[in-house]
Specification:
Structural class of chain B: alpha/beta
Order of helices and strands of chain A: EEHEHHEHEHEHHEHEEEEHHEHE
Structural class of chain A: alpha/beta
Shape of chain A: elongated
Radius of gyration of chain B: 20 Å
Helix content of chain B: 10-25%
Shape of chain B: globular
Oligomer: heterodimer
Helix content of chain A: 25-40%
Number of strands of chain B: 23
Chain lengths: 339, 391
């Protein structure tokens, strides 16, 4: 198994702050803490190093140069740090291991859990360390253990079992007991004063916006996740796990006639809704309000997607894109109908 | 009064024939993929002549016979023009990597494939298939009436004073046609829920499945008949807890006010049972999770401690929030797995139910399939052992 080790200029033995501008450099064999990793069985074929300031100030160039070395060296695993509590060093380690994993090279860094480099590490593993270099002796064996596992392509267990920081990815496993038995355990524990959970909650809570000051002056848009599309679904909007959203011009239409519109939503029985699509997107009522002058004007486009099994990240992206267009069009209020 | 469940050898399985459908008996361990699965039912019959899936409100009394290690899988390929708006693909892999996601891989599976005649509507087809499936499950167990059981279990709750009193709040879907769970033959929304039932009723055919939403989060009939939660609570009764009973409650209440009212009513039923704590189970996905969260909050506000069972729906590449809904009172949750994770590709030797998956892929060489398409894989009554954890 061949490992490449990344350290900053200080741990590579090139010098302290005065050498923090050192550009990316490749050295043969193990340097500094690399010796400790080798003592644990990690064979280091090369050490990559870069000055902390250089990396911070020329991130793109530094990363490109370091990845170039990695592509040449083709190691089984990239090890970075330990960076302890050092923010710049940790950030460089995290950014590099994340980029390595994106290129298919298994990678692990080590640093203090509060180091900003943890957030930069993406899908790579991070072994927690003490806040300063006094934690070196404790950190190296744990870092080496994970490096060996990754280098040997062993399937890793949970964060708790393997000693890395939780990245947040949820992975399935077959537990020793059924969910029912685990629920009884959790409930009896909670009744006895010890509350535990297998999954934490926490949601994006969207605060209601302040009311529109004067609707009679506002340009109002209709947006929906009801899967409402022109008959025949010309753009093939998905009925589940939508891949995108669509904008359909209303061209002054007064109503979403069932002969012209339908819902392709796959999350509920659309039979009744398709008899009158206005009940999904109330174009008829909005036009009446427009005629009565209670809303300024209706935006002449309907924005639609299917909200059914859509991952939160994807839905957030749709929302941002649609909001961006609406803002550009001067829309001041949105009627968002959900199902 | 105790209810007795008598188990009989699978050798007593009766003749499997259903008019207008193909029936095949698949031996344990056969490398078969079953597609378009609606429901799974354990063959049962009652020696006293009453129906195994009664409509009369009287399950959980007397004795019921069961065939051990046999399950009926009903499959229906809905007509294409109505299909995409309704049932989602539901698969049972009896071999390969998907076999860990089903309890049926080492059982004898009686697979009924129903076909859609021209012009037949989904609701008619579903009702026909559901009735025929329950009826076949009953016929398959007929021979037990003349045989000796291998085992008889008695279900009765004696005194268990001084132990923490625990109730199960079991959610049943009612989101309209094709999304109904049935209580004594009535859709959950018309069954007077929330209501207290004897736990034995759950195990004895009072609840049947007509809910064909997300396969992994579905509660097929057999998961009530063999309900792991109710059985575990019976087992622990008098040991480390006092099993207070079962409250059935509806999922997919349709308005915010109805959801709140139903949540408070379920908590009130739990209070009437004298529960110190409740386990709240979930049926299907989406807004039924909101019903569960509101019920959790209502119970906690009534001084009843809660544990919730539910599945996660997280993009495997994301570390973003993973629950459809959540309240801060839900501080004790069992995760029955992330339904978005992929199960490795597998090439079965045979496919039953239908050769083409609903997304158009050939069932034989479909490639990786998400957990969400495996029947009951992330069952939110905690029937199986799947879980999810942070890595």
């Amino acid at each position: 198994m061949r490992a490449v080790h990344y350290v900053n200029q200080f741990f590579a033995g090139l010098g302290g702050e005065d050498k923090a501008e050192t550009p990316p450099t490749r050295l043969d064999g193990a340097m500094g803490p690399g010796g400790g990793l080798e003592a644990e069985g990690v064979e280091i074929v090369a050490t990559l190093t870069c000055g902390d300031d250089y990396f911070a100030e020329h991130e793109q160039n530094a990363l490109a140069a370091l990845l170039g070395h990695l592509r040449e060296l083709r190691p089984d695993v990239l090890v970075a740090g330990p960076a302890f509590g050092s923010g710049r060093y940790g950030y460089a380690c995290g950014t590099l291991v994340a980029a390595a994993v994106a290129e298919g090279i298994p990678a692990v860094a080590a640093m203090h859990p509060e180091n900003p480099g943890v957030d930069a590490s993406g899908k790579a593993y991070v072994v927690p360390t003490a806040v300063n270099v006094a934690g070196m002796r404790d950190a190296l064996p744990r870092l080496a253990k994970l490096a060996l596992a990754l280098g040997e392509r062993r399937e890793l267990g949970s964060a708790e079992e393997e000693g890395y920081l939780v990245r947040g990815f949820r992975r399935n496993y077959i537990a020793e007991r059924t969910g029912a038995e685990r629920a009884i355990e959790l409930l009896l524990g909670k009744l006895a004063g010890e509350t535990r959970t297998e999954v934490g909650g926490g949601l994006d809570r969207v605060d209601p916006p302040v009311p529109v000051a004067d609707l009679s002056q506002a340009l109002v848009a209709l947006v929906t996740e009801a899967g409402c599309v022109p008959q025949g679904n010309p753009d093939r909007l998905q009925s589940v796990r939508a891949q995108g959203w669509f904008r359909y011009e209303l061209n002054g239409e007064d109503t979403l006639a069932s002969a012209r519109y339908e819902s392709v939503h796959g999350g509920f029985d659309v039979t009744l809704a398709n008899e009158d699509p206005n009940r999904l997107v109330p174009l008829d009522a909005a036009r009446a309000l427009e005629r009565e002058g209670r809303i300024g004007r209706l935006h002449e486009a309907l924005y639609t997607t299917t909200g059914n099994g859509t991952p939160v990240v994807v839905a957030t992206k749709f929302g941002r894109e649609i909001a961006g267009e609406l803002k550009e069009a001067g829309v001041g209020a949105v009627l968002l109908s959900g199902t | 009064m105790a209810w007795e469940l008598a188990s009989f050898s699978s050798n007593l399985i009766g003749e499997a024939r259903v008019e207008g459908a193909e029936v095949e008996i698949v031996p344990p361990g056969a490398p078969v993929r079953v597609t378009h699965v609606l429901d799974a039912v354990e063959p049962r019959v009652r020696p006293d002549g009453r129906p195994a899936f009664p409509m009369d409100g009287k399950a959980g009394e007397g004795r019921t016979n069961r065939l051990d290690g046999v399950v009926v899988l009903s499959c229906l390929d809905f007509a294409a023009e109505e299909r995409p708006l309704h049932e989602q693909e539901a698969i049972v892999d009896l071999g390969g990597p998907g076999a860990v996601h089903t309890p049926f891989a080492d059982e004898t599976c009686v697979v009924i494939s129903f076909y859609a005649p021209d012009g037949a509507r989904n609701e008619q087809l579903e009702a026909h298939a559901r009735k025929q499936t329950l009826s076949l499950a009953e016929r398959l167990a007929q021979q037990t009436l003349e045989a000796e059981p291998e085992q008889v279990e008695a279900f009765e709750l004696g005194e268990a004073e001084g132990l923490p009193r625990v109730a199960a709040l079991i959610q049943l879907s009612d989101l309209g046609p094709l999304y109904y769970q049935y209580v004594y033959g009535s859709p959950a929304g018309q069954a007077g829920l929330p209501r207290v039932v004897d736990p034995a009723e759950v195990l004895d055919g009072a609840i049947t499945c007509g809910e064909y939403h997300w396969a992994a989060m579905r509660n097929p009939t057999v998961f009530f008949q063999r309900n792991a939660l109710v059985r575990s609570l019976y087992r622990d009764h008098g040991g480390r807890l006092d099993f207070a009973g079962v409250v059935l409650m509806r999922g997919y209440e349709q308005s915010a006010a109805d959801k709140q009212r139903a949540a408070e009513a379920a908590a009130a039923r739990a209070r009437e049972l004298g529960a110190d704590g409740v386990i709240i189970t979930t049926d299907a996905g989406g807004n039924s999770h909101t019903d569960v969260m509101l019920t959790c909050r209502a119970c906690e506000q009534a001084g009843i401690r809660t544990t919730v069972i539910l599945a996660e729906e997280t993009d495997p590449e994301s570390t973003r929030p993973i629950l459809t809904d959540w309240v801060p009172e839900a501080d004790s949750i069992v995760s029955t797995g992330n339904v978005e994770e992929l199960v490795e590709a597998w090439t079965p030797e045979r496919v039953l139910g239908g050769d083409t998956l609903l997304d158009g892929r050939p069932a034989e060489g479909a490639g990786p399939i998400p957990v969400r398409n495996y029947l009951g894989a992330a069952n939110q009554m905690g029937q199986l052992a799947l879980g999810a954890r942070a890595e």
